[in-house]
Amino acid sequence: MAAAGGLLLAALAATPAFARGVQAWSQLQLTGRVADGWSLASDISGRSATDNRERQLLVRLQAGRALSDKATIWLGYVRAETFNHDRRNGFEQRATGQLDWRAGALGPFDLTLRARAEARFFRNSGNMAWRLRQQVRLTLPISDMVEISGAAEPFVTINRNSDAPRTLDQLRLTATLSTELTDQATLNVAYYNEHVFRPERTYVNHIIPVTLAWRF
Known about the structure:
Blueprint: H1 2-14, E1 17-35, E2 38-49, E3 54-66, E4 71-84, E5 90-106, E6 109-122, E7 128-141, E8 146-157, E9 168-180, E10 185-197, E11 202-215
Parallel strand pairs: 1-11
Antiparallel strand pairs: 1-2, 2-3, 3-4, 4-5, 5-6, 6-7, 7-8, 8-9, 9-10, 10-11
């Protein structure tokens, strides 16, 4: 763990940081059980920046199978289209595999882990890149309806190319306030501090996602 933390700190210090405009993400998440042990999930996310640099529409579809009361495995597909004002629009498709694990209590916090593997296909260049993401999240219940959480998630590229030039592609740190609106609906308001590592510099994104999660 100490060595991994050292690598992350070295990456943060290796290139100069450049702050970009605040991004606003509006997201809808739908999750439902369709059979014994099986679930379907879909996300749609509209993303824009205050500096009008780019806009993105991301759609995710997943099918999940519960392995136990603590672990679920998912297979999914992601379509992401980026609309740029000063260059050709970007288009990416991903095939994903994911493992969610509720690891248990850590003091007053609930510890959850999410490991995701992505095969990323870029239409404009024809490149394909493998990426691994490991999220560690701590959640603290405040009341029966409100909880707060914090998470860290490095994005690691396995095979680098012109679309994914760095091994440590991104590092995302998040803080989230979740409010249960009904038995089926939860509203999540978050802040993401996202470092995007590129050969010439490190970009820092400040992101405010607002997510309505609906369970059926």
